[in-house]
Amino acid sequence: MKRLVLLAAAGAALLPALAFAALPATDAVLKGAAFIKTVQRPDGGYAESPGQSIDAIIAVRAAGYDPRLDVQNGKTPADWLIANAPAITSPASAAKAALGAKALGLDPKNVGGTNLIAVAQAGYDAETGAYADNAFSQSVAILGLACTGNQPGAKAADNLKAAAVQGGGWGFGGFADPDTTAIAIQALLAAGVPRTDEAISKGLAWLKANQGNDGGWGYDPAESNTSSTAFAIQALLALGEDPESAAYTKNGVTPVQYLLSQQLPDGSFTGYDPAFAANQVVPALAGRTYCNAPETPITRTRPAAQPTPTPQPTTPAASPTARATTPAPRPPATGDSAGPASPAGGELGLALAGFALLAAGGAAAALARRRG
């Protein structure tokens, strides 16, 4: 009996350490959500970039807050989306905005008179199954429809499967990247493709093979970044995988612990841009996928007083545990253009020197996610 008591006490002593890295990582999520509130703009949105503003709306909801209650200059994120919805014409941008509308408790088919679902569906090519000319935007279009209760096009999943590159991942320019691979896996699952499907199995295998030694993911396995790691965690959660298991522990560090190590004192995270990174990381640390983050139960209320925004350096400082001294490439982006997205752009200067082909893929992915 005494032995059992001692074992129980020993187990209890371990609980705080285990809870520190367990999902949801509540303390980090609350700090990240508080930071997002500090960057809210006078028009009610959270960023100049529409796609980033929608990411923030979804992140606030993923943290358990009602984004409709975030007010700046008398405007809420719902006011912002209603004002901007008429300008959205590309399928991926409309689909992503539909997820934002869901997070705000709005009807995606009637956002101030704009039917975002109809906009997304109107851009579908029934012959090819394409909503977009790149895998990331194709995935977002599928997710935005499926995760708001609308059926994606009949050939949309097949189109996305066919876009996989050698090695089983998805990306740009013939090279896979973790962001696009993770979002593609989630899109296929949302479209009803079974977890055992060969395309999904190969995508998961690619993620496993390309995890960094610090527990994270990046465009280069030797240079992990927070946004890529957050997307990978969401894919693992959607697959029913445990991102804190031994299978995803590198040098004693899990992907969740990697993200926690990158949180800055103001609640943001290191990355291409601290606010951009916070929008990606908060849902992952809250244990929410890209699909279910907008429907997170509202269980929290913002504190009356918000912290003063911390000025952000042009180049985010790396945490003591971060290996990279160069800012991460901008992750892929959707939701920032009224018209169709193009995977090409002039952001190759953001790439890491010596990795030209990899950087080209990262820059293309960046533009796709930002634009939609």
Automatic annotation (TrEMBL):
* Stretches with biased composition (Low complexity): 296-305, 315-345
Signal in keyword set: yes
Q: Tell me where in this chain the Squalene cyclase C-terminal domain is found.
A: 166-270
**Recorded superkingdom:** Bacteria
Taken from the record, one Pfam family name reads: SQHop_cyclase_C
> Which keywords does this Swiss-Prot/TrEMBL entry list?
Membrane, Signal, Transmembrane, Transmembrane helix
Name-wise, this protein is Terpene cyclase/mutase family protein
* Organism (species): Tepidiforma flava
